């Protein structure tokens, strides 16, 4: 039962946090994912792994244990993620992010391969890697 690293509309104070996470989590902690870049999407961001460059800022959210199965299913639906589906918008992957107290293994939704290829070719990187203070490059 890994916690989730959220970097866009699921962050505290954002609209999907209120819709999906509020009342279902027991903790939220600032974190950063080194080796990834944030791209502008249609009203929400995409994270793309880019080893050696970039940092994405967000929070680790820890679901209440009794909420975990339902929340995992809700977030998979929100992110259009179905295991093994080549038409996914996002993939859910386990990665390690950094917190003030050390590294934490988390689930993070990243751009699926086809989406990542399109964004790398013609997308807008969000300088600074922080959705809440976004500035397009």
From TrEMBL:
Residues 4-132 form the Gamma-glutamylcyclotransferase AIG2-like domain. InterPro entries: AIG2-like_dom, GGCT-like, GGCT-like_sf. Keywords: Transferase. One of its GO terms (molecular function) is transferase activity. Gene3D superfamilies: Gamma-glutamyl cyclotransferase-like (3.10.490.10). This is Gamma-glutamylcyclotransferase. It comes from Streptomyces mesophilus.
């Amino acid at each position: 039962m890994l916690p989730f690293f959220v970097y866009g509309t699921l962050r505290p104070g954002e609209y999907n946090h209120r819709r999906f996470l509020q009342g279902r989590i027991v903790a939220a902690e600032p974190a950063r994912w080194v080796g990834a870049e944030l791209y502008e999407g249609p009203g929400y961001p995409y994270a793309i792994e880019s080893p050696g460059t970039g940092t994405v800022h967000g929070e680790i959210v820890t679901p209440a244990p009794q909420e975990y199965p339902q929340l995992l299913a809700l977030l998979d639906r929100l992110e259009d993620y179905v295991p093994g589906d080549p038409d996914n918008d996002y993939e859910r992957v386990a990665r390690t992010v950094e917190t003030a107290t050390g590294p934490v293994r988390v689930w993070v939704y990243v751009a699926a391969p086809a989406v990542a290829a399109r964004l790398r070719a013609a997308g807008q990187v969000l300088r600074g890697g922080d959705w809440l203070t976004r500035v397009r490059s």
